[in-house]
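Below is how a single chain appears once it has passed through the pipeline. First comes the sequence as given, then the structure the pipeline wrote out for it. We keep one example in the README because the format questions we get most often are answered faster by looking than by reading.
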Amino acid sequence: MAAGRGHLPGGRAHRPALLSGTLALLALVVLIGRAGRIADGTDVPWYYLVGGGILGAVYVTTTLITVRSLGAGGVTAATVAGQLTASVTADRLGVLGLEERALSVPRIAGVMLLVVGTLLVVRS
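Resulting structure:
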């Protein structure tokens, strides 16, 4: 198989993933009763749309590169630890319109436990 090609002919492995993801999101919108308000989703700053796509591509690329060395468990552990760290930071700074939350010993300990757990999972 040529480098950079998917398992489907012509390197189109991304198409089923995009289609299934799109259909799942549409089904979710209909199920929660927001189908009539889809137009509201276009009322966001352009950098939310561009930034989300770029960060998604960076995450997928990083995962594909690191999964061979860290393993699936290591990548998953690092992802969860990174998400919790970012969430605690977002809470502390009050970004995205969130109410600011002070750092506390239990919150810092929770992040540190996940970091230690990630190191334990990654170590061979």
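The longest helix spans residues 46-93.

See the next section for the split statistics.
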